Amino acid sequence: MIPAPLEYPPYTAQRLCPGLWHIQDATADHPPGTQPDGSFHSPSSVYVVETPSQVLVVDLGPPYPGQALRALVDRIAGGRAIQVAITHNHFDHIGALRQFEDCLHHLPQRDPIQTAAPSRLLTGGESIALPPYHFQVLAVPGHTRGSLAFYEPEQGWLFTGDAFGSSYVWLLFLPDAVEVYRDTLRRTLALLGEREDLLLLPGHRYQQQILPVPGIDPRSPRNPRLGLPYLRDMLTLSEQILAGTAASRPFQACGREDLAAYTYGRAEIDALLPGRPPVEL
Fold first, then answer.
1. What does DSSP assign to residue 205?
2. Which of 14, 157, 159, 278 has its CA at 20 to 30 Å from residue 45's CA atom?
3. How far apart are CA 106 and CA 24, in angstroms?
4. What is the rounded distance in angstroms from the CA atom of residue 137 to the CA atom of residue 135?
5. CA distances (Å), 42 to each of 32, 101, 195, in order?
């Protein structure tokens, strides 16, 4: 049984299983989705992996004033050393970077990030050793050029940031994003093999709609568990988009209307219409 969440405003932390915590910038008073004033709250996911001697924090959420995230992670760490791994350089995943500048940072080399912390730049193919866990670093471009994922094969954990989406993926920031993403999916699925117990731990877990989220388009898929079937549907959908056969509807984001939401099975890809310039974030 998953224990009750721990609120530490603006965050909520919950232990998903032994050794693994999920943190998001949402609380009972400020939940994900449409708010009473009509605004939409889109929290980001932070993960904390515990070992006997240290913890690994995967992504650091959006920027907030103060030191609340560090205080919450310190509470979980209980004096153990802290390392940080970043999946990509978007603001809603590196917002608390300065709170952790005394910790070793594992960073994507192809998504430049400015930090004063001791850093290790990664391109994929490396590993992060936190015994008893050993994370394989995967290059997973598409959402961004330098996106990384962190795979723990013994546990079947795959920390993905926004690389594979959190029920749907934005492929808006590269001119050739869908083609790059298709190739990423092919490589990743070949690496994972038949790992049916795979668990994707994405960058915006609320989008899975483990509990219904008001304001998410009802046509978007609901995926309480993300695993191999989801990735397989994403590959099929990316191939359909490139072939011009994918089902779609109009989509708006980042002030742009020249976008489309494509769907197949468990998968949704929100992408540029053909020939349109990428979104600048």
1. G
2. 278
3. 21
4. 6
5. 6, 26, 30
